[in-house]
């Protein structure tokens, strides 16, 4: 074989090998990129709710005329110097009356380096509904998930719903026991809707 032919053949082989290497590298890089894009290890959804959205129980009555006017703060768990997570427990009754009673427990969770607020809230919701035996539809037009909660008495009914990085537990206690579950659950849904609207970030 002439020298010129050997040089040309060798050059062609080198070019082919180089082209193949580039193609493999490009495909591997693209595959890694697509894999990372399709297999996220954490939820990156921004927190919807913050501690300022649950500053006081009276804030709910100020934002919604449907919620009974007398608001009382039952308990608060919130240590802003440690965490942005918190719990707020409120009771609402009509003026000069003890019934009906609306009770709210709002829990919100802030994103950290280890876990998003939405993931933390979802885990909290799952734990709170683990022993729930009533899987009938709640019928809410808001929130991501909802379940009924066991009633505290014959005149009480409750529900829980998840919305992004917050969990809302609401109980409604009527003045007298109703004739059927819906006589309590109907007003409960109405209160849940009013409390949800009042909690929306401004």
Can you tell me about this structure?
The chain has four helices and six strands. With 202 residues, the chain is α+β, with helices and mostly antiparallel strands. Strands 1-2-3-6-5-4 form a six-stranded antiparallel sheet. β2 and β3 (101-108) form a beta hairpin. The chain is globular. The chain crosses the membrane at residues 7-35. This is DUF3558 domain-containing protein.
Q: What's this entry about, in short?
A:
By secondary structure, the protein is α+β, with helices and mostly antiparallel strands. The protein is built from 4 helices and 6 strands; from the N terminus they run H-H-E-E-E-H-E-E-E-H.
Which oligomerization state do the chains in this entry correspond to? single chain
What is the count of DSSP helices, taking H or I runs of 4+ residues?
Answer: 4
User: N- to C-terminal separation?
Assistant: 83 Å
Please give the radius of gyration in angstroms. 28 Å
Please outline the major beta sheet: 6 strands, antiparallel
Helix- and strand-based class? alpha+beta
Share of residues in helices: 25-40%
Strands of the biggest beta sheet: in what spatial order? 1-2-3-6-5-4
Annotation, overall tally of beta strands: 6
Which regions contain 5 or more consecutive residues with pLDDT less than 50?
1-41
Proportion of β residues?
A: 15-25%
Mean pLDDT: 82
Order of helices and strands: HHEEEHEEEH
What's the overall geometry? globular
């Amino acid at each position: 074989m002439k020298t010129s032919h050997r040089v040309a053949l060798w050059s062609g082989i080198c070019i082919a090998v180089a082209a193949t290497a580039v193609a493999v590298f490009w495909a591997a890089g693209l595959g890694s990129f697509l894999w990372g894009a399709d297999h996220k290890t954490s939820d990156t959804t921004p927190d919807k709710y913050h501690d300022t959205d649950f500053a006081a129980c009276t804030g709910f009555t100020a934002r919604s005329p449907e919620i009974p006017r007398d608001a009382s703060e039952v308990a608060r768990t919130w240590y802003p110097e440690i965490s942005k997570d918190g719990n707020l427990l409120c009771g609402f009754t009509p003026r000069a009356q003890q019934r009906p009673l609306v009770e709210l427990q709002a829990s919100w969770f802030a994103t950290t380096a280890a876990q998003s607020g939405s993931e933390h809230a979802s885990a909290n919701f799952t734990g709170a509904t683990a022993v729930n035996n009533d899987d009938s539809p709640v019928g809410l037009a808001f929130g991501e998930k909802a379940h009924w909660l066991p009633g505290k008495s014959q005149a009480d009914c409750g529900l829980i719903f998840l919305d992004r990085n917050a969990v809302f537990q609401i109980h409604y206690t009527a003045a007298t026991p109703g004739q059927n579950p819906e006589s309590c659950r109907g007003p409960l849904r109405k209160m849940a809707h009013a409390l949800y609207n009042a909690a929306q970030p401004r």
